[in-house]
Design a protein that fits this description.
With 242 residues, the chain is of the alpha/beta class. Helix 6 crosses helix 8. The chain is 38% helix and 21% strand. It has two domains: 120 residues, Response regulator (Rossmann fold); 105 residues, Arc Repressor Mutant, subunit A. A hairpin with a 4-residue loop joins strand 7 and strand 8.
Length: 242
């Protein structure tokens, strides 16, 4: 089995089409016609990926995602007819990992689902063996009161875990690999998203998400600084990587 996917889509014909294509590729799939029904499935089944429409009856997709992200870091792939740039930025900003606009190719959706699974499993500490925790200090990056553990793909502040999505971890990890260096948006996007073509505003969205988790005052960041005209720089304050 490739993984467990929940499709939240109120148009039954489209939900059944997505289910068909994903099932053919070895995914275990369940569907829900509303956000409320989606939460019932999640509580009983614990999917590894959620494919989410925005225009849902009752709770819309944005409301669902905001509520879902309070307790879950499972990847979310939005599939929506709302193609405006602001909608896409909003979706990514509140926690979506991908945003696909309708109409879409089912084969492309399957490929995106596979890619999301690869990334999330690569950065999921639960997939690590117990041996990964007997580590050398060189696999830790310390800045301020934070410790980024490269082996466990985990961020802690004063010993307490700070939840990160797969993309948030990848973005922060790339910056810590280049401390003190100004990294332009194209560089970050190509190395984190593994794609030379796409919406570069996605980088700014994820930087804002990281700042909310790292900074006392996200509007006046200490750790992830904006380098005007260039990009972003990790200010490795009190870094001790030895």
């Amino acid at each position: 089995m490739q993984g467990k996917v929940l499709v939240i889509e109120d148009v039954k014909e489209l939900a059944d089409l997505v289910l068909l294509y994903l099932s053919k590729e070895g995914f275990e799939v369940r569907t829900a016609e509303s956000g409320e029904e989606g939460f019932n499935v999640i509580n009983d089944w614990q999917p590894e990926l959620v494919i989410l429409d925005i225009n849902l009856p009752g709770m819309d997709g944005f409301e669902f995602l905001q509520k879902y992200r309070r307790d879950n870091n499972t990847p979310v792939l939005i599939v929506s007819a709302r193609a405006d740039e602001e909608d896409q930025i909003s979706g990514l900003g509140i926690g979506a990992d991908e945003y696909i606009t309708k109409p879409f190719s089912p084969k492309v959706l399957v490929a995106r689902a596979r890619a999301v699974f690869r990334r999330s499993r690569a950065y999921n500490p639960q997939t690590m063996s117990s041996m990964d925790y007997d580590k050398n200090q060189e696999n830790l990056f310390r800045f301020g009161s934070f410790v980024l553990d490269y082996d466990a793909c985990m961020l802690k502040k004063n010993g307490e875990r700070i939840p990160l999505s797969a993309k948030e971890y990848a973005c922060l990890a790339w910056l810590t690999k280049n401390p003190g260096k100004a990294m332009d948006v194209e560089n970050i996007y190509s190395n984190v998203w593994k794609n030379n073509y796409g919406d570069l505003t996605t980088v700014a969205v994820y930087i804002q998400r990281l700042r909310k988790k790292l900074e006392e005052d996200p509007a006046n960041p200490v750790y992830i600084e904006t380098v005007h005209g260039m990009g972003y720089r990790l200010n490795a304050i009190e870094n001790n990587k030895s």
